[in-house]
User: Fold Presumptive arabitol PTS enzyme IIA from Enterococcus avium.
Amino acid sequence: WIVKREKEFPTGIQLMNFGAAIPHTDAECVREEFVAVITMQEPVTFYSMEDNTQQVKAQIIFVLGLNQPHAQLEMLQSLMGLLQNETVLSELLLATTENELVTTIKKNQL
Assistant:
């Protein structure tokens, strides 16, 4: 469902120094909730949420699987705020272990 939704409603976001994406599906498609943070050594191509003809080379991807529409909206708003904080995003990208990633997330109350 995520791939299908991404084709219809792209989630790529071009930031100052790198690209990001927030792929997600509709709440009714999620059995068990999750949020995954994926950092890429080599960027993955997504299409821009602002202009679906423009490619975004995403280095950080937040995959959302939330089954409550209100919670999904809150998480998207929170992530949009995070995406404006290049310092925290850089810390996430520099994390080399799962533990470092989790520590950065907790330290910044994400």
